Amino acid sequence: MSMQLFIGGMRGSQPATGTAFEQFGGDTTSLLLVSSEGERLVFDAGTGMHTIARELATMGPGEVAVLFSHYHLDHMVGLTMNPLFYESGWSFKFMGPALADGDVREVVTRVLAPPYWPVSWEQMEARFEFATFDAEEIGIGNLRVRQCPVPHPGGCRAYRIDDASGAALVYATDIEWRNRTKAQETAFVTMCGEPKPADLLVIDAHFAEANADAFVGWGHTCWEDGVGIAGSVGVERVLLGHHAPEATDQALNALEQQVKKCVPGAALARSGQWLTIKGNRNHADMA
Ligand SMILES: [Zn+2]
Ligand SMILES: [Zn+2]
């Protein structure tokens, strides 16, 4: 019993193309989580959405929740790349926070409309629903989904998913840890660590300590902070993402070797990979 996580893309800010980006992939952030009981949850709708649509198609029609961390374009542009929106039998529930510049319904319907997109909602065969996610916790099927605000220009949310199997994932893209308030720190650390440390932390690693000072206010974290948070709360497995658009396979491979020397359970996200998330041995002790 476990959750499965598919990485459609984890390139940050804008897509990258070319032979230098084949191994880690150039598609922007979009991940698919399949729970132990078959619920399907997509995190963000970057250009990785097109490979996620392919994976979903192999599983067959049904319900899919699409959960947005925030609405920057690198997390939205893949909405135009999902052919399943035009097929009957599919049901997509778009969920996300109400931020200063709009809630999930306003933003998604603004993007998938002229002049940005020519096809009207009436021409799409799938069913669509919208739900603002402002509560601290909701249920999606048998999944327990918690959220907390994280520092990022315009606002952003991190999510924790607890599966019926006892496995837990925290998804935290687009977070500038060094700009956090005390309240944000407490909320995020609590979410990562309680009621037990998450089995996998997916976190922004756009920068490194060596260059982070030059990009204060850009909204991203350096990998050293990501693995530091994990270590402080007992999360053993970390997946680093939101790779800088200019970071080549050569650079990311070198970085991964460096990261693994510090934290053996850390790795860099690669487009097209499936990961298994199992509950750690302590989960049976947890309420
Ligand atoms: Zn982003
Ligand atoms: Zn962003």
How would you describe this protein?
The chain has 287 residues and is α/β, with parallel strands linked by helices. It has one domain (3-285): Metallo-beta-lactamase, Chain A. The protein is 21% helix and 25% strand. The chain contains six helices and 14 strands. It has helices spanning 49-59, 104-111, 182-193, 209-212, 223-233, 249-262; strands at residues 3-9, 30-34, 40-43, 63-67, 91-96, 127-132, 137-140, 143-150, 156-162, 168-172, 200-204, 238-241, 266-268, 274-277. The strands form two sheets. Strands 6-5-4-3-2-1-14 form a seven-stranded mixed sheet. It has a seven-stranded mixed sheet with strand order 7-8-9-10-11-12-13. It is globular, with a radius of gyration of 18 Å. The two termini are 18 Å apart. The structure holds zinc ion (2 copies). One zinc ion binds at residues 12-13, 29, 72, 74-75, 174, 242.
